[in-house]
Every structure is written in structure tokens, then in C-alpha cells.
């Protein structure tokens, strides 16, 4: 017997192409009274509500009224172990890592602590409308088990990996070249491809790995070329100077990763703020993904990501909270920060561009652009309903809006988890 169809009713926003490649409003289609038909965890049809109601006469109807139906948000770079230290005051990157991050990450040796934080993390992000996350875990394999266990229990698509560090970190947070390779490989076997879970090879960043460890992880990636690899690049000037000191033979930061087989398509390069011309050109040539983390870049004082220039150059760009260097779990707040960073750089990003970055854009950056991030037939039914008048301040501004973009923008700029009125993961209602 065929599984029952569920029809979700609401406003629908779809993208026919990237709003960075076309006039933003022409790239999108808005259906004020729309419907999404879901069956067996997948989207089977999207269209006009009346037409789909006539077609799917025996469907179960879930009417979300005027709420906007959207793909769940895709957060392309997070550190779930930093959940409990988000919004820690002061300090620049290296000092912040030493003062707050490393002491907290040391606690993940305890599987109970890891499980408790993973559950808290997924409760917070799903409440904020995020249905896919890509996380750094800690050096402890138990932290990866906790992350994937919590995601799997919720039916979420999730990506992540054991953070590898064999120098410039406290003793309790150091592995070795060999154990990083062995542990990562065992975790790939345990988790990669189970349900909607994907393992990501995760050297934290060049300063915390010896050349031997980077080499071992480059070899591991060569063994599993279908995997993604995540790391950080060119976030702060002090960090870049440190990398130059540690790797005097490298031309620049990116060259360190290139030398060890860690720069290619499928690389997720976090931050990518202070890139040289050579690095920009080479990253484009490699088709590596650049992950913009705007709340983090402002919170830690890192700098302004050149969205306009990099998009014009044709880079593959995703958007991320960078929890807990980032100051929010919400991709709405993250879109607002991307807008503010754009303004400080002389470019006002259109609401369509912001929404696309948080959904299809991030999905493309993860090479999952044919499975998640869009409301279209054949996509996984990770869907959220967004209340476009979730607070009195937002509602009174949205009431003046003359088109969907004017109505949506106040939620982008002022919205939070109160705007998320329902969340479905693979068609199953989560909240
Ligand atoms: N660079 C290396 N590790 C980290 C981290 O945990 N957060 C941020 N923002 N940057 C990093
Ligand atoms: Zn990070």
C-alpha cells in the first residue's frame, strides 16, 4: 500500500536559480496560497494549494495558515561542544580558544556529558528551524558518537567528525597523527552513510596539527574521496602570522592544506576572510567551499567576509553560525549578521540572497544541493513553517510590507526561534 500523502499548506517560496546569478527577485517564485505534498519523507509535489487539494483528495491536510513554508535551514559550520560556552565575554581567537573552548572540550571525554550537550544542542537548533548541521566534535570519538546518536534519534541529516589536534592544545586534547587517522577511520566505518549521517574529516586548523597529522588526514581523505573535509582558514591576522611561522615553507595559509592533500573539491573552508589573491583564485579553481560565519566574525572581531567579490568570482559559499564562536544558534540571526557585514562592505544583500544562502546555498556548499535546501519534488522533506509576524515589533512592520520580500525582511533582521512554528525532518513532525 502506498504511504499516505500529507499536504502542508502555507505561503511557499522557491528558487529556480541562485539569486546571486540572476536578479534576486527573478530567481525566486512566491506562491501566496501554496502547498507542499510529502510522502515517505520526501517532497513529491509543490504548487498551488487548491490544485494540490484537488489532486490529493485523500491526503492528510496540515494548514499552517499564512506561515511561510521553507526548507529547514542548513548550518554549514558549527562546534556543538561549544554550546555551553556560547557568548563568553572578551578575547580574540587564540586566547578565546585557550580560555573557554579547550577547557570545555576537555569535558567531552565523559560520554554522559557529550550526550547531554548533544541533546541540548539539537533541541536548540531544531527550535530555531535548522534541520542540517555540520559540526566539529572534540578529539574524543565519544563526542562523535553522541552527536550522531542525537541527530539520528531526531531523524535529522547531520554531518560531522572528530576534531584532530596533535599540537598547540592542552595535553588532554591532543591525539597523534596515527590515532587521529585510526580513530577517524573507525568512526567513518561506524557512522558514515547510516540513515542521513555523513562523516567529515576534521583537522581543526593548521596551527593545531603537525605536518605528520595533516599528512595522515590527507591520506585518509584520498582513501575516502567521497567524504567532505572541514577546517578553518584565514580567520584572524594573528592566526595567519602563526601559520606562517609554523610552516615557513608554505606560500600562504592555503598552501599548507594544499601540500597535504587537504585542499580540493569537498573541502569546507571555515571563515576565509583575509585571503590573498592567490588563495582566492586557487580556491575557486579547486571548487572548494567557503563557509561564511558572520556572527562569529563580528563577535571574535575577525573581519568582514567579501561576499560580493567572492560571489562575483563564482565561489561556492555556505552560511553558518559557528556556534559557539558565533553568538547565536539561529540562522535568522545569522542572515541578519550577513546582511550587516554586507552593509559594512558596501553591498546590501537582498532578502532572497540571504534566504538562499541559509538553505540552498549552504546545501550546495555541502554538495547536497540535490537532496536538501529546496522545496521541490525529489528533495528530502526537511521543512519549517515560519511565522512572519512572530513578535509585535515584527508584525507591525510586516503589516506594511508590499511584497513577500518586505514582509520577510523584518523576520530576517529581528526574528529568532519564536518565528519557527513547526519543523519536519524527513516528513516527520519534530516540533
Ligand atoms: N579556529 C580553530 N578552532 C576554532 C574554533 O573553535 N572556533 C573558531 N571560531 N575558530 C577556530
Ligand atoms: Zn569553527
What does this structure look like?
With 431 residues, this protein is of the alpha/beta class. The chain has two domains: 6-72 and 373-429, Urease, subunit C, domain 1, CATH 2.30.40; 73-365, Alpha-Beta Barrel (TIM Barrel). It is built from 16 helices and 16 strands. The protein has helices spanning 24-27, 49-55, 93-106, 111-127, 141-153, 177-191, 211-223, 237-246, 253-259, 277-286, 294-299, 307-312, 331-344, 351-365, 392-398, 404-414; strands at residues 6-15, 28-39, 42-48, 60-71, 73-79, 130-136, 157-161, 163-164, 197-203, 228-233, 267-271, 289-292, 316-319, 383-386, 420-425, 428-429. The strands form two sheets. Strands 5, 6, 7, 8, 9, 10, 11, 12 and 13 form a nine-stranded parallel beta sheet that branches. Helix 4 crosses helix 5 (141-153). The longest helix has 17 residues, at 111-127. It is globular. The protein starts with 5 loop residues before the first strand and ends with a strand. The chain binds guanine (GUN) and zinc ion. Guanine binds at residues 79, 93, 97, 101, 204-205, 232, 235, 296, 300, 322, 325.
Tell me the layout of helices and strands:
Elements lengths: L5 E10 L8 H4 E12 L2 E7 H7 L4 E12 L1 E7 L13 H14 L4 H17 L2 E7 L4 H13 L3 E5 L1 E2 L12 H15 L5 E7 L7 H13 L4 E6 L3 H10 L6 H7 L7 E5 L5 H10 L2 E4 L1 H6 L7 H6 L3 E4 L11 H14 L6 H15 L17 E4 L5 H7 L5 H11 L5 E6 L2 E2 L2
Parallel strand pairs: 1-4, 5-6, 6-7, 7-9, 8-9, 9-10, 10-11, 11-12, 12-13
Antiparallel strand pairs: 1-2, 2-3, 4-14, 14-15, 15-16
Helix pairs in contact: 4-5, 5-6, 6-7, 13-14, 13-16, 14-16, 15-16
Bound molecules: guanine and zinc ion.
